[in-house]
Here is the input.
Amino acid sequence: MNKVPMTVAGEQSLREELNHLKGEARPKVIAAIAEAREHGDLKENAEYHAAREQQGFIEGRIQEIESKLSSAQVIDVTKLPQTGKVIFGVTVELLNLDTDEQVTYRIVGEDEANIKEGRISVTSPIARALIGKEEGDVVMVKTPGGDVEYEIEGVEHL
Here is the structure.
């Protein structure tokens, strides 16, 4: 089984969701199904069908999270030596050489990526171009809008 890189925060977030689903959501939907059964004919009981559908979603999500956690390789970048090299988990400060615009991204696992919060997937074109490079390097990133040149201004292990 291939190990999937994940940050400590990403693992913690998945574990919290799993605990919520198992501890709160699953018991609530089981109670809703029991209550809907008491209302009689199940063929025409919309509450019952909605609760069963919700139960299917919850059970599917629990299996998905457990699978992700079992194949996760949790990387705590704060415990790695700071070499100035771009690796999984670091926060990178970039300068767009065309527009002089500064951007900051944290390179995370696929499930953790959220561009609005500055987290990009390790499999994204930007991250793939940056991995292995060092502070001061100029990197060409192929984007849908064309090639963009970035200078790596800083690499932080946060």
Summary: The chain has a mean pLDDT of 92. The radius of gyration is 22 Å. Strands lie at 4-7, 72-75, 91-96, 102-108, 119-121, 138-143, 146-156.
